[in-house]
Structure formats: C-alpha cells, structure tokens
Amino acid sequence: MPERVEVASAEAAQLLEPPVARRTGWRDDIQALRAAAVIAVVIYHLWPGTLKGGFVGVDIFLVVSGFVVGGPLLERAYRGERLNVKTFFARRALRLGPASLTVVLATLIASALTYAPVDQLLWSGGLRLVSMAKDAIAAAANISNLWLMWQQRDYADDGFGSPYTHFWSLGVEWQFYAIAPLIVIALAALARHDRRLRPLGIIALLVLAFNLAALAPEVWNGAFFNPLARVWEFIVGMASAFVFARLGGARRWAPWLAALGWLMIAVGVLVSRFSPAWPNAWTLIPVLGAAAVLVGGPGHRGLARVVRARPVQAVGNASYAIYLVHWPLLILVTGGSRSLGIAAQVALCAAIALCAAALHVFVERPALRLRSMTRVTAGHLLCWWAAATTAIIVLAVGTGVLAQHQASAADAIAPVYAPIALTDTEWTHESVVPANLRPGLTEARSDLPQIDTSTCGEPVEKPGAGQHTCIYGSNQESAPTMVLFGDSHAQQWIPALRAIVDERGWRLVVITGSGCGPWVGLHIERRGEACDAWRKWALQTLASSDADVVVASGWYGYSTDEGEPTSDSRFANGVADIAGATPTGARLVWIGDTPEWTSDPVSCLSEHAYAAQLCATSVGRAHARIGAVVRASVENHGGSWVSFTDYLCTAKCPALIDDVLVYRDDDHLTATFAAELRRPLEERLALSGQ
C-alpha cells in the first residue's frame, strides 16, 4: 500500500476533494503521477529507442517525495511541533526498507545462480572492479549512487549489466532524508518570529539548491548520480507542498494548472535525451510539470477521470514495487543485453507485474501495518532495519568470498605462449584454465594498457573530453614518429607499440578517444556531439603532426542515435577522411578489428574452468563484411591493411592460448596478450625500411 499523503496543514485538508480525501489525506493525482513516472522508466528500460526521455520518471519521483515527505515535515515545524528525528527515520525505514531489502536479497540469490564467479568477486582487481557482491552491498546500504559515481559508471551504458544499478535513486532519496530535518529546522528558525519570511526562506533554499546543482558536476564525477545535483528536485516538491497548503486544490485556476503540469510532463518525457550531465536546464520541464500537478490537484473532470481510473491507481499503488523489480528481472533475463523478441518482452512484462504485485501485497502492506502496533517503537523499527541490512551485507560478502574461491584456477600448468599464427600450427584448445594463466581471471578486467585516463585515454562523454595527446618513447622531436589514431580498440595495441618504439628510439604519439570510433560522420548514440568534437580535433591534430607512420584502428560495432548499425559507406568515408588527414609522406597502416564475443569470455572461463574449450567465438559475418569494406577503402587510399585474426583464431577464436588470457572483455585484448604480439606487429608494420 502506498504511503498516505499527509496534508501539509488543516487548512489544506479542507481543500482536498472528494470528501473521503478530507478525512484521509489521500490524493489520487499523486498516485497517477507515480504511475506515469514508473511506466515511463519501465518503457525506457525495456524499449530504449521507444521513449528516449523515459528516464525523467525518476525526476518526477523525487519531486513527489519532496512533497509527500518534506512538505508535512516543514508544516509541522512551522506549527512549532517538536521534530522527532528517530520517528522520522523509522517511518522512512518502514516505508522503503522492507521492499528494497527483499529485492536486494532476491537479486543476490538470483545473481549468484546466474552470473559467473568472476562477476561476483569482492576484492580482486581493486575496488573499481564491477561485481555483483559489491553492488549488492552498496544497494543494501543505500549508497548505490555514490558507489556508481566513484566507479565512474554510466547509467545509460552500464555494459556490465548490473541488476542493482537502479538502486541509485534510492540512495539519492536517503541522502536527502539525512539532511531534511536540518533543512526544516533552519527554515522554521528563520521564520519563527515573522511568517512573511517563510516564502523567502524557501526561495533562498531553492536558489542555494540550484547553485549546488550547477557546481555538483565540477565537484565530483558528473551530475546524474550526484546527490548535490538532485537536492533541488526535492526542494521543488517541498515548495509545492507549501504553496498547495495555502493556494492549491480548490482554486479556480487549479485544474488548469494541473492540465498544464501534465502537458509539461508529457513534453519532458518526449523531448528529453539522456546525458551524463543530467539534470540540466531541460530537467525543469518535467520537474516543474510535476510541481504544477501537485499544486493543481486532480484537474478538470475529463482529466480527473483518467487520474482516478482503477488501472492508473493500481499502477500508482504498486509503483515502488514495480520500480524495484523491473530492472533486476530485465538484466537477469537478458544478461545485460536488453535484447528480447516480442513474445519474450510480453512474458517479461507479465513477470514484472506478478513480482511487483507479490512484493506489494506480501511485503509492503504488512510492513506498513506495523505503524498501528502500539508496542512497536521507532527504536525497534530502526534496530530491525539495521539488523536486516547488516545480514544482507554479510551474505553479500560471503557470496564474494565463495566466488573468489570458485574463480581460482585449476592446478594444471600450460606451456608458455610463443607468438605464432594458429593457422600455421596444430594448436588445440586448452581444456582447463591453467594455474599459470596470465593475467589471472580475477585480474583480467583490470589488465589494461598503461595510458593516462585523464588525457589521451579519457572517455569521450562530453564536448572537449579526450582532446589530449600522449607521447611515449624518445624525447627527441627529430626522432621518427608513429601516431596511433582511433578508439579503445586502437588503445589496446599500446603495450606492443610502446615496446617497438622504445627499442627503435622512435616517438609514439597517441591520438585516441575512448568510446568514439574513427568513423567520421557517424553520430554515435548519446555521445554524438562529444564524438563529433573529438574527431574534428583529432583530425586536425593528425594533419599537423610530423608522423612518419600512422597506425589506425577502431571498433566495428557502433550504432547511430536511432540504434541502427553503422552503414558500410560510413566506414569507408571515415577511412577516407583519416587518409586525407595523414601527413604527406607518412604511411597509413590499418589494424583490423579483433573478434567480438556475444558473451563475456572471462565469465565463461570462470564458469567452465575444466572445460575451457567451450569458451570460444567466431569472427562473424558482420565482422568479416565490415573488415572487407574498411580494407578496400584503406588500400584504395594507398594505405596498408594488417590483421591478426590468424593469431587469434582457427575455426574458432579461443578465450585463452597456452598460458595467456586473450580477452579482458567481449571485444578487447588483454594488455598482456597485446604485448606478446609485439614482434608479429613490428613485422606487419614493415618498419625495417624506416
């Protein structure tokens, strides 16, 4: 059962309609807001290309929370009532805790059965390594947003597919509740002797919150998960409650205001586009729309009928449960790919509805009934909540410890890898993950090229990012110069290229943008403007360089803003532009892309430690077709094409060769394996004459 909306004052209670609402403080329009918000979020997650602004549903939830929780708290303080902080937090824990902890526990059990041991490690690879156990601990402790910020994870592109990502909003909510009593006390103290100061205090608080939101991205890792960037949305909700208590509900203009609010929400959902810098100025549309609905009430008769319709109210009543269960089910069913057929989508929607109904009926409602039990004190509730949270955290730690043991290598010792084309040998797949594997499975995801992630290795997520070069090798500007151009698929060759230039006394200039392919003219999904700006800078930097050799490479799998695969012509045109920017007299050498996996090879090996031969992929038709297009374009522009498919594959492409792990994820080589290919790469670059 959703939380009753406590009316901000006795005065406001008289404004509520219908008569039942005057007695209970119930507002159908708030349930309708919750229904609209959760439906938008679910559609955005299940069908990402259908409702691209659906993520603003969370912004609406935060405004509603400010109204429902912060508003009554402020009114009590204005009336001079004593603020019982223990009771406040106990009520919050009772409202949010049982359902959220139930979902964390169920997801922890399901992920332990679904995910590979290497995906659940607790400490290997450093704290920045993504894992189920760590994400579960953060979710149970209500700090998911801070955890995701610290790891620099991207909400819209969580390629790892963690079923706990959506708990970030619960973290933001709890962090607001942590400061809400202080905010209320400060506002009440300001207006203690003069009621006319109350509106000024709220306006000043809004101004402060807006300034915090503007500064937040500069203070700490972007805005999306940042609580400082979200406080203003709660404050808008509190301000709406303040206005509603004095002006809203029964006024003649109220229905028109409500209609305008719903229109603004619809516009916000339809036109908003995700950005790591969200919330931004565009966020005002859905946020102020929600505030208008909260102040205006149910609206005119036609709108009120929709708002009060049973299906709408049912979804609103279970909105919290729907939000909690939809994401874990989606991720656990699809493995993070979020790719399903129509029949599977329908089945998934049915599963979400059933699980949400069960959570609502058997967990939420019984928990809220505890409020009426006179023997249950606030202290009891807080102790129960703390004990349940601690128990789940301990269980998550145990899951991580067990996964650590399961991911350990077997006792077998593999021969030391000697770089040679697999097609030239009678090499057979390793059947066991060896004890001397380099890097070990628990270190695989962190086996990256040594590159400065704040300069040339910076992910290109906003205009201006990644516009830096890195220089390795000789300090002499007169030394022969090799330029590496491309994205992270070019960066993966840095270990081999650095060894080559160090031995030859050359300079290596790295011009790479992680997340942005070298395919000029491709407006990459969500990073379009940032990538366009990076490529313009990168081409200018390449053209003005004193390169003797330009080594380029890039991923073949980029899609457009519409989610469509990149066309062959864009790959060919991208090569043409890079060839055109290559300095006169310099050679262009293109390294063909590495094979791509449909699943994670590291996870596969941890699941099949004694059947490693099952972990293999193929080059794939699309990969081969695009490679042919790129190769033809390179050669048409006088460049050279090199490929290492023969070093990576026979009929299949294995995840490990001898004692070396080949891949760190589904499409990148480990730095260890790339370094092993130093001699073959040097030969194929044909540097002997330079």
Q: What are the main properties of this structure?
A:
690 residues; 10 strands; 5% strand; 2 domains; Rossmann fold; mainly alpha; 53% helix
Fraction of residues in H or I helices: 40-55%
| Total domain count | 2
Strand content: 5-15%
Strand order of the largest sheet: 1-3-2-4-5-7
Termini separation: 75 Å
Number of helices: 26
Mean pLDDT: 85
Question: Quick one: how many beta strands?
Answer: 10
Largest sheet: 6 strands, mixed
The parts where pLDDT drops under 50 for at least 5 residues are 1-24
Structural class: mainly alpha
Radius of gyration from the alpha-carbon trace, in angstroms: 29 Å
Sum up the overall morphology in one term.
Answer: globular
What does this structure look like?
The N terminus is likely disordered. The protein contains 26 helices and ten strands. Helix 4 crosses helix 10. The longest helix is centred in the N-terminal third of the chain and has 30 residues. 53% of the residues lie in helices and 5% in strands. Helix 21 links the parallel strand 4 and strand 5. The protein folds into two domains: 390 residues, no CATH class; 263 residues, Rossmann fold (3-Layer(aba) Sandwich), CATH 3.40.50.1110. By secondary structure, the protein is mainly alpha-helical.
